[in-house]
Design goal:
about 450 residues, CD59, 5 domains, 11 helices, signal, DUF753, DUF753 domain-containing protein
Protein backbone atom coordinates (compact mmCIF):
# COMPACT_ATOMS: atom_id res chain seq x y z
CA UNK A 1 0.00 0.00 0.00
CA UNK A 2 1.63 3.28 -1.01
CA UNK A 3 2.19 5.95 1.63
CA UNK A 4 2.61 9.68 1.43
CA UNK A 5 5.82 10.85 3.04
CA UNK A 6 5.34 13.34 5.91
CA UNK A 7 7.11 16.65 5.46
CA UNK A 8 8.45 17.19 8.97
CA UNK A 9 10.18 20.34 7.94
CA UNK A 10 6.85 21.90 7.01
CA UNK A 11 5.26 20.92 10.34
CA UNK A 12 8.15 22.36 12.34
CA UNK A 13 7.90 25.59 10.36
CA UNK A 14 4.24 26.02 11.14
CA UNK A 15 4.75 25.21 14.84
CA UNK A 16 7.59 27.65 15.39
CA UNK A 17 5.82 30.32 13.39
CA UNK A 18 2.77 30.24 15.67
CA UNK A 19 4.48 29.93 19.05
CA UNK A 20 5.55 33.61 19.30
CA UNK A 21 1.92 34.71 18.97
CA UNK A 22 0.45 32.59 21.79
CA UNK A 23 1.68 34.68 24.80
CA UNK A 24 0.45 37.89 23.20
CA UNK A 25 -3.04 36.47 22.57
CA UNK A 26 -3.32 35.01 26.05
CA UNK A 27 -2.16 38.28 27.65
CA UNK A 28 -4.74 40.23 25.71
CA UNK A 29 -7.52 37.97 27.05
CA UNK A 30 -6.51 38.32 30.73
CA UNK A 31 -8.96 40.52 32.77
CA UNK A 32 -7.50 43.75 34.23
CA UNK A 33 -10.57 45.77 35.40
CA UNK A 34 -11.66 45.72 39.03
CA UNK A 35 -15.25 46.55 39.95
CA UNK A 36 -17.42 46.54 43.06
CA UNK A 37 -19.42 43.30 43.16
CA UNK A 38 -22.45 43.12 45.47
CA UNK A 39 -26.22 43.24 45.69
CA UNK A 40 -28.52 44.42 48.46
CA UNK A 41 -30.34 41.09 48.56
CA UNK A 42 -27.16 39.29 49.70
CA UNK A 43 -25.05 42.11 51.11
CA UNK A 44 -27.69 44.42 52.55
CA UNK A 45 -26.66 47.99 53.30
CA UNK A 46 -23.04 47.25 52.44
CA UNK A 47 -24.05 47.49 48.79
CA UNK A 48 -25.91 50.76 49.28
CA UNK A 49 -24.83 52.95 52.16
CA UNK A 50 -21.64 51.24 53.39
CA UNK A 51 -19.80 50.64 50.14
CA UNK A 52 -16.54 51.75 51.70
CA UNK A 53 -16.44 48.44 53.57
CA UNK A 54 -16.11 46.57 50.27
CA UNK A 55 -13.14 46.32 47.88
CA UNK A 56 -13.26 46.20 44.06
CA UNK A 57 -12.48 42.73 42.69
CA UNK A 58 -11.17 41.54 39.32
CA UNK A 59 -13.64 40.90 36.51
CA UNK A 60 -13.62 37.56 34.66
CA UNK A 61 -12.99 38.83 31.17
CA UNK A 62 -10.74 41.48 29.72
CA UNK A 63 -13.59 43.06 27.78
CA UNK A 64 -15.87 43.42 30.85
CA UNK A 65 -17.04 46.78 32.16
CA UNK A 66 -18.27 47.90 35.57
CA UNK A 67 -21.96 48.51 36.07
CA UNK A 68 -24.43 49.61 38.73
CA UNK A 69 -28.11 48.83 38.44
CA UNK A 70 -31.39 49.27 40.30
CA UNK A 71 -33.30 46.03 39.78
CA UNK A 72 -37.00 45.57 39.21
CA UNK A 73 -37.59 45.00 42.91
CA UNK A 74 -35.50 48.02 43.84
CA UNK A 75 -32.38 46.08 44.85
CA UNK A 76 -28.98 47.61 44.10
CA UNK A 77 -26.65 45.48 41.96
CA UNK A 78 -22.99 46.24 41.25
CA UNK A 79 -20.57 44.13 39.26
CA UNK A 80 -18.97 43.37 35.89
CA UNK A 81 -20.82 43.10 32.60
CA UNK A 82 -19.60 41.94 29.21
CA UNK A 83 -19.24 44.80 26.77
CA UNK A 84 -21.51 43.08 24.29
CA UNK A 85 -24.24 42.60 26.87
CA UNK A 86 -24.47 46.21 28.00
CA UNK A 87 -27.41 47.06 25.78
CA UNK A 88 -29.47 44.13 27.01
CA UNK A 89 -28.49 43.98 30.68
CA UNK A 90 -28.11 47.67 31.51
CA UNK A 91 -30.92 50.00 30.57
CA UNK A 92 -30.71 53.72 31.39
CA UNK A 93 -31.70 55.41 33.66
CA UNK A 94 -31.78 52.56 36.16
CA UNK A 95 -28.30 51.38 35.15
CA UNK A 96 -24.91 52.98 34.51
CA UNK A 97 -21.73 51.55 32.94
CA UNK A 98 -18.12 52.69 33.37
CA UNK A 99 -14.67 51.36 32.56
CA UNK A 100 -12.12 52.30 35.23
CA UNK A 101 -11.31 50.62 38.51
CA UNK A 102 -14.01 50.85 41.17
CA UNK A 103 -16.00 53.29 39.08
CA UNK A 104 -19.38 51.71 39.88
CA UNK A 105 -19.52 53.37 43.31
CA UNK A 106 -22.21 55.89 42.37
CA UNK A 107 -24.30 57.44 45.13
CA UNK A 108 -28.02 56.69 45.36
CA UNK A 109 -30.63 59.35 46.26
CA UNK A 110 -34.39 59.50 46.57
CA UNK A 111 -35.98 61.10 43.51
CA UNK A 112 -39.53 62.40 43.13
CA UNK A 113 -41.18 65.60 41.94
CA UNK A 114 -43.55 68.16 43.45
CA UNK A 115 -46.38 66.65 41.39
CA UNK A 116 -46.09 63.38 43.33
CA UNK A 117 -48.11 63.63 46.55
CA UNK A 118 -46.08 60.82 48.14
CA UNK A 119 -42.97 62.97 47.80
CA UNK A 120 -44.42 65.36 50.37
CA UNK A 121 -46.68 63.17 52.46
CA UNK A 122 -44.51 60.08 53.07
CA UNK A 123 -40.98 59.21 54.09
CA UNK A 124 -40.40 57.89 50.51
CA UNK A 125 -39.03 54.65 51.93
CA UNK A 126 -40.31 52.78 48.87
CA UNK A 127 -37.42 51.66 46.65
CA UNK A 128 -39.24 52.95 43.59
CA UNK A 129 -37.95 56.42 44.51
CA UNK A 130 -34.25 55.38 44.35
CA UNK A 131 -32.14 57.07 41.68
CA UNK A 132 -28.51 56.53 40.63
CA UNK A 133 -26.48 59.73 40.75
CA UNK A 134 -23.66 60.86 38.49
CA UNK A 135 -20.85 59.85 40.85
CA UNK A 136 -20.03 58.79 44.38
CA UNK A 137 -19.44 62.43 45.28
CA UNK A 138 -22.89 63.62 44.21
CA UNK A 139 -24.99 64.86 47.14
CA UNK A 140 -28.69 64.28 47.65
CA UNK A 141 -31.19 67.15 47.73
CA UNK A 142 -34.63 67.72 49.23
CA UNK A 143 -36.38 71.08 48.99
CA UNK A 144 -39.78 72.73 49.29
CA UNK A 145 -41.15 74.59 46.30
CA UNK A 146 -44.55 76.28 46.66
CA UNK A 147 -45.36 74.05 49.61
CA UNK A 148 -44.49 70.81 47.77
CA UNK A 149 -41.37 68.65 48.16
CA UNK A 150 -38.89 67.72 45.45
CA UNK A 151 -36.10 65.14 45.94
CA UNK A 152 -33.25 64.21 43.62
CA UNK A 153 -29.51 64.01 43.09
CA UNK A 154 -28.06 67.46 43.64
CA UNK A 155 -26.49 69.51 40.86
CA UNK A 156 -23.51 71.86 41.08
CA UNK A 157 -25.80 74.84 40.54
CA UNK A 158 -28.14 74.02 43.44
CA UNK A 159 -28.28 76.43 46.38
CA UNK A 160 -30.26 75.82 49.56
CA UNK A 161 -32.35 78.01 51.89
CA UNK A 162 -34.29 77.28 55.09
CA UNK A 163 -36.59 74.79 53.37
CA UNK A 164 -33.89 72.95 51.45
CA UNK A 165 -31.18 70.50 52.42
CA UNK A 166 -28.26 68.82 50.67
CA UNK A 167 -26.60 65.82 52.29
CA UNK A 168 -23.86 63.27 51.66
CA UNK A 169 -24.45 59.55 51.71
CA UNK A 170 -26.80 57.08 50.10
CA UNK A 171 -30.53 57.84 50.37
CA UNK A 172 -29.89 60.59 52.92
CA UNK A 173 -32.75 62.69 51.52
CA UNK A 174 -35.41 60.22 52.63
CA UNK A 175 -37.80 60.64 55.56
CA UNK A 176 -40.58 63.18 56.04
CA UNK A 177 -39.32 66.59 54.95
CA UNK A 178 -39.09 69.10 56.49
CA UNK A 179 -38.75 67.24 59.76
CA UNK A 180 -41.19 69.59 61.51
CA UNK A 181 -43.91 68.96 58.93
CA UNK A 182 -47.23 68.67 60.76
CA UNK A 183 -49.11 65.38 60.75
CA UNK A 184 -52.93 65.41 60.93
CA UNK A 185 -55.80 62.96 60.56
CA UNK A 186 -57.24 63.44 57.08
CA UNK A 187 -60.65 62.08 56.17
CA UNK A 188 -64.24 63.08 55.48
CA UNK A 189 -67.74 61.67 55.78
CA UNK A 190 -68.57 58.49 57.66
CA UNK A 191 -64.88 57.52 57.90
CA UNK A 192 -64.37 60.45 60.27
CA UNK A 193 -67.12 59.49 62.70
CA UNK A 194 -65.28 57.34 65.20
CA UNK A 195 -62.54 58.67 67.48
CA UNK A 196 -59.01 57.69 66.55
CA UNK A 197 -56.89 55.57 68.83
CA UNK A 198 -54.18 57.40 70.83
CA UNK A 199 -51.35 55.53 69.09
CA UNK A 200 -52.88 55.75 65.62
CA UNK A 201 -50.89 58.00 63.32
CA UNK A 202 -52.20 60.60 60.93
CA UNK A 203 -50.51 61.67 57.70
CA UNK A 204 -48.06 64.50 56.99
CA UNK A 205 -49.80 67.51 55.48
CA UNK A 206 -49.60 67.62 51.69
CA UNK A 207 -48.45 71.24 51.70
CA UNK A 208 -45.71 72.62 53.89
CA UNK A 209 -46.18 75.99 55.55
CA UNK A 210 -44.73 77.23 58.82
CA UNK A 211 -47.12 77.14 61.78
CA UNK A 212 -49.56 74.84 60.00
CA UNK A 213 -52.52 73.51 62.01
CA UNK A 214 -54.89 70.55 62.02
CA UNK A 215 -58.64 71.08 61.89
CA UNK A 216 -61.84 69.21 62.70
CA UNK A 217 -65.15 70.30 61.18
CA UNK A 218 -68.55 68.70 61.63
CA UNK A 219 -72.24 69.18 60.97
CA UNK A 220 -73.18 65.94 62.75
CA UNK A 221 -71.55 62.69 63.77
CA UNK A 222 -71.82 61.21 60.26
CA UNK A 223 -70.67 64.28 58.38
CA UNK A 224 -67.24 65.30 59.62
CA UNK A 225 -64.03 66.40 57.96
CA UNK A 226 -60.44 66.44 59.21
CA UNK A 227 -57.29 67.75 57.61
CA UNK A 228 -54.64 70.47 57.50
CA UNK A 229 -55.31 74.20 57.28
CA UNK A 230 -52.73 74.30 54.49
CA UNK A 231 -54.95 72.10 52.29
CA UNK A 232 -55.98 73.91 49.12
CA UNK A 233 -59.65 73.30 49.94
CA UNK A 234 -60.84 73.07 53.54
CA UNK A 235 -63.97 74.26 55.39
CA UNK A 236 -61.94 76.13 58.02
CA UNK A 237 -60.01 78.41 55.70
CA UNK A 238 -59.78 82.12 56.53
CA UNK A 239 -62.76 83.62 58.35
CA UNK A 240 -64.57 80.27 58.38
CA UNK A 241 -62.71 79.43 61.60
CA UNK A 242 -65.12 81.70 63.48
CA UNK A 243 -68.22 79.72 62.47
CA UNK A 244 -68.14 77.71 65.71
CA UNK A 245 -67.79 74.42 63.83
CA UNK A 246 -64.02 74.54 63.37
CA UNK A 247 -61.71 73.12 65.99
CA UNK A 248 -58.09 74.00 65.23
CA UNK A 249 -55.01 72.62 66.99
CA UNK A 250 -51.27 72.71 66.36
CA UNK A 251 -49.74 69.41 67.49
CA UNK A 252 -49.29 66.19 65.54
CA UNK A 253 -52.50 64.19 65.09
CA UNK A 254 -54.40 66.45 67.49
CA UNK A 255 -57.62 66.47 65.42
CA UNK A 256 -58.83 63.10 66.66
CA UNK A 257 -62.00 63.94 68.61
CA UNK A 258 -65.30 62.32 67.82
CA UNK A 259 -68.32 64.55 67.21
CA UNK A 260 -69.51 63.93 70.77
CA UNK A 261 -67.40 62.67 73.63
CA UNK A 262 -68.02 61.91 77.29
CA UNK A 263 -67.18 64.53 79.89
CA UNK A 264 -64.97 62.85 82.48
CA UNK A 265 -63.52 65.86 84.30
CA UNK A 266 -64.80 66.33 87.85
CA UNK A 267 -65.16 69.78 89.41
CA UNK A 268 -65.64 71.41 92.81
CA UNK A 269 -69.29 72.51 92.90
CA UNK A 270 -70.45 74.99 95.55
CA UNK A 271 -71.74 78.53 96.13
CA UNK A 272 -70.75 81.08 98.74
CA UNK A 273 -71.65 84.56 99.93
CA UNK A 274 -70.97 86.96 102.78
CA UNK A 275 -73.27 84.90 104.95
CA UNK A 276 -71.81 81.54 103.91
CA UNK A 277 -68.09 81.79 103.24
CA UNK A 278 -67.15 78.09 103.09
CA UNK A 279 -66.98 78.08 99.28
CA UNK A 280 -64.39 80.87 99.41
CA UNK A 281 -61.94 78.65 101.28
CA UNK A 282 -59.38 76.21 99.90
CA UNK A 283 -61.26 73.13 98.71
CA UNK A 284 -60.21 69.48 98.69
CA UNK A 285 -59.74 68.34 95.05
CA UNK A 286 -60.84 64.85 96.11
CA UNK A 287 -64.28 66.26 96.85
CA UNK A 288 -64.83 67.10 93.17
CA UNK A 289 -67.98 65.55 91.70
CA UNK A 290 -69.17 64.49 88.25
CA UNK A 291 -70.67 67.07 85.95
CA UNK A 292 -74.34 66.62 85.11
CA UNK A 293 -73.72 67.31 81.43
CA UNK A 294 -72.34 63.95 80.31
CA UNK A 295 -71.41 64.71 76.69
CA UNK A 296 -69.52 67.53 75.03
CA UNK A 297 -69.24 68.49 71.38
CA UNK A 298 -65.84 68.20 69.75
CA UNK A 299 -65.45 71.98 69.90
CA UNK A 300 -65.90 72.11 73.68
CA UNK A 301 -63.02 71.83 76.12
CA UNK A 302 -63.58 70.11 79.43
CA UNK A 303 -63.24 72.76 82.11
CA UNK A 304 -64.13 73.75 85.65
CA UNK A 305 -64.75 77.36 86.66
CA UNK A 306 -64.69 79.73 89.60
CA UNK A 307 -66.85 82.84 89.23
CA UNK A 308 -66.82 85.75 91.66
CA UNK A 309 -69.30 88.58 91.26
CA UNK A 310 -70.84 90.96 93.79
CA UNK A 311 -69.17 89.06 96.62
CA UNK A 312 -70.87 85.83 95.57
CA UNK A 313 -68.73 82.90 94.46
CA UNK A 314 -69.75 79.93 92.34
CA UNK A 315 -67.65 76.89 91.49
CA UNK A 316 -68.68 74.17 89.07
CA UNK A 317 -68.58 72.66 85.59
CA UNK A 318 -68.13 75.30 82.93
CA UNK A 319 -70.78 74.13 80.47
CA UNK A 320 -73.42 73.94 83.17
CA UNK A 321 -72.88 77.62 83.92
CA UNK A 322 -72.16 79.03 80.47
CA UNK A 323 -73.04 78.12 76.90
CA UNK A 324 -69.48 78.39 75.64
CA UNK A 325 -65.96 78.68 76.97
CA UNK A 326 -65.55 82.25 75.75
CA UNK A 327 -68.09 83.56 78.25
CA UNK A 328 -65.73 82.85 81.15
CA UNK A 329 -63.43 85.87 81.11
CA UNK A 330 -61.08 87.14 83.75
CA UNK A 331 -62.41 90.67 83.47
CA UNK A 332 -65.84 89.30 84.39
CA UNK A 333 -64.49 87.63 87.50
CA UNK A 334 -64.46 84.17 85.94
CA UNK A 335 -61.52 81.79 85.92
CA UNK A 336 -61.52 78.40 84.16
CA UNK A 337 -59.17 75.45 84.52
CA UNK A 338 -58.71 71.90 83.25
CA UNK A 339 -56.22 69.07 83.33
CA UNK A 340 -57.10 67.53 86.69
CA UNK A 341 -60.17 66.75 88.75
CA UNK A 342 -61.03 69.50 91.20
CA UNK A 343 -58.72 72.01 89.51
CA UNK A 344 -61.02 74.83 90.69
CA UNK A 345 -60.12 74.22 94.34
CA UNK A 346 -57.94 77.25 95.05
CA UNK A 347 -58.72 79.63 97.90
CA UNK A 348 -60.31 82.87 96.78
CA UNK A 349 -58.30 85.84 97.95
CA UNK A 350 -59.47 89.40 97.50
CA UNK A 351 -57.56 92.43 96.50
CA UNK A 352 -60.18 94.50 98.25
CA UNK A 353 -59.43 98.19 98.77
CA UNK A 354 -61.26 101.30 99.89
CA UNK A 355 -60.54 104.98 99.52
CA UNK A 356 -58.96 105.95 102.84
CA UNK A 357 -58.70 109.70 103.48
CA UNK A 358 -59.81 112.83 105.43
CA UNK A 359 -60.81 116.01 103.69
CA UNK A 360 -58.98 118.16 106.25
CA UNK A 361 -55.65 116.55 105.30
CA UNK A 362 -56.29 115.71 101.65
CA UNK A 363 -58.22 118.17 99.48
CA UNK A 364 -59.15 115.46 96.95
CA UNK A 365 -61.02 113.56 99.63
CA UNK A 366 -64.08 115.81 99.45
CA UNK A 367 -64.98 116.08 95.76
CA UNK A 368 -62.31 114.18 93.86
CA UNK A 369 -61.95 110.91 95.75
CA UNK A 370 -62.32 108.87 92.57
CA UNK A 371 -58.82 110.01 91.60
CA UNK A 372 -57.31 108.65 94.80
CA UNK A 373 -55.75 105.21 94.95
CA UNK A 374 -57.46 102.68 97.18
CA UNK A 375 -55.73 101.16 100.19
CA UNK A 376 -55.99 97.60 101.46
CA UNK A 377 -58.13 97.02 104.50
CA UNK A 378 -56.39 95.89 107.64
CA UNK A 379 -58.76 92.98 108.00
CA UNK A 380 -58.90 90.31 105.29
CA UNK A 381 -62.67 90.19 105.57
CA UNK A 382 -62.95 93.75 104.26
CA UNK A 383 -64.65 92.55 101.10
CA UNK A 384 -67.54 91.14 103.14
CA UNK A 385 -68.36 94.47 104.83
CA UNK A 386 -67.49 97.06 102.22
CA UNK A 387 -66.34 100.68 102.47
CA UNK A 388 -67.84 103.70 104.21
CA UNK A 389 -67.90 107.46 103.71
CA UNK A 390 -69.40 110.09 105.98
CA UNK A 391 -69.25 113.63 107.41
CA UNK A 392 -68.22 114.65 110.90
CA UNK A 393 -67.89 118.37 111.78
CA UNK A 394 -67.62 119.27 108.11
CA UNK A 395 -64.80 116.75 107.68
CA UNK A 396 -65.38 113.99 105.15
CA UNK A 397 -63.89 110.68 106.18
CA UNK A 398 -63.63 107.60 103.97
CA UNK A 399 -62.30 104.14 104.81
CA UNK A 400 -62.88 100.40 105.29
CA UNK A 401 -65.95 99.55 107.31
CA UNK A 402 -64.21 96.69 109.15
CA UNK A 403 -61.40 99.02 110.26
CA UNK A 404 -63.79 101.59 111.80
CA UNK A 405 -64.55 101.65 115.53
CA UNK A 406 -67.72 99.80 116.49
CA UNK A 407 -69.51 103.05 117.39
CA UNK A 408 -68.80 104.45 113.94
CA UNK A 409 -69.92 101.16 112.39
CA UNK A 410 -73.16 101.53 114.33
CA UNK A 411 -73.81 104.97 112.83
CA UNK A 412 -72.82 103.93 109.30
CA UNK A 413 -74.92 100.77 109.35
CA UNK A 414 -78.04 102.77 110.20
CA UNK A 415 -79.62 103.26 106.78
CA UNK A 416 -81.86 106.01 108.14
CA UNK A 417 -78.83 108.09 109.09
CA UNK A 418 -77.67 110.20 106.16
CA UNK A 419 -74.44 111.19 107.87
CA UNK A 420 -72.62 108.00 106.85
CA UNK A 421 -73.05 105.47 104.06
CA UNK A 422 -71.76 101.94 103.42
CA UNK A 423 -71.12 100.50 99.95
CA UNK A 424 -69.88 97.20 98.50
CA UNK A 425 -67.06 96.72 96.05
CA UNK A 426 -63.48 97.88 95.93
CA UNK A 427 -63.02 101.67 96.07
CA UNK A 428 -66.79 102.17 96.01
CA UNK A 429 -66.70 105.01 98.58
CA UNK A 430 -66.00 107.87 96.18
CA UNK A 431 -69.41 109.56 96.11
CA UNK A 432 -69.50 113.32 96.61
CA UNK A 433 -71.25 114.44 99.81
CA UNK A 434 -73.07 117.77 100.13
CA UNK A 435 -74.44 119.91 102.97
CA UNK A 436 -71.56 118.99 105.21
CA UNK A 437 -72.83 121.17 108.07
CA UNK A 438 -76.22 119.40 108.23
CA UNK A 439 -75.28 116.75 110.73
CA UNK A 440 -77.59 114.48 112.57
CA UNK A 441 -78.04 115.85 116.06
CA UNK A 442 -77.69 112.49 117.65
CA UNK A 443 -74.40 112.07 115.87
CA UNK A 444 -73.15 115.50 116.97
CA UNK A 445 -73.62 114.37 120.51
CA UNK A 446 -70.96 111.76 119.97
CA UNK A 447 -68.59 113.78 117.80
CA UNK A 448 -65.92 114.50 120.41
CA UNK A 449 -65.88 110.84 121.34
CA UNK A 450 -65.81 109.75 117.69
CA UNK A 451 -62.91 112.00 116.81
CA UNK A 452 -60.90 110.85 119.77
CA UNK A 453 -61.46 107.28 118.65
CA UNK A 454 -60.69 108.04 115.03
CA UNK A 455 -57.46 109.75 115.98
CA UNK A 456 -56.30 106.62 117.77
CA UNK A 457 -57.88 103.87 115.70
CA UNK A 458 -57.74 104.97 112.09
CA UNK A 459 -54.50 104.39 110.23
CA UNK A 460 -55.46 106.98 107.63
CA UNK A 461 -55.65 109.85 110.17
Amino acid sequence: MPTTPINFYFIFYIFFALIPHFPSSIAQDLPTLKCYKCNTYADGLNCTTNLKHLQPTLCENSYDKCYMKIGIGGDILRGCVAAGAVTTRCQASSCVVCDFEGCNDHNVCKSCSTSDADCSKTDVSDKKFDEICESSQTECLAKVTDGKVERRCAQNTDQCNDTCTMCSGALCNDGVFPKDRLSCFQCNGIDCKNPFEPLQAGSPCHNYIEDDKCYTYGDNDSNMQRGCLSDEVNPCAGDNQSTGKCLVCNSNNCNSRSYKRPQVLKCIQCEGSKENTECFNLQDPNSATDCSKKELLYTDEEACYTHLKNNVVKRGCLYEHMTNEGECKEENGCEKCSGMDGCNHKEITFKFTCIVCRSDTNTKCQNNAKNLKGASCRTDAGWSKGCFYGIWNNVIIRGCYVDAHEQMQYVCSDKSNTQCHVCEGSDCNTSVLSNASALNTSTNFYLPHFFSLLFVKFYFI
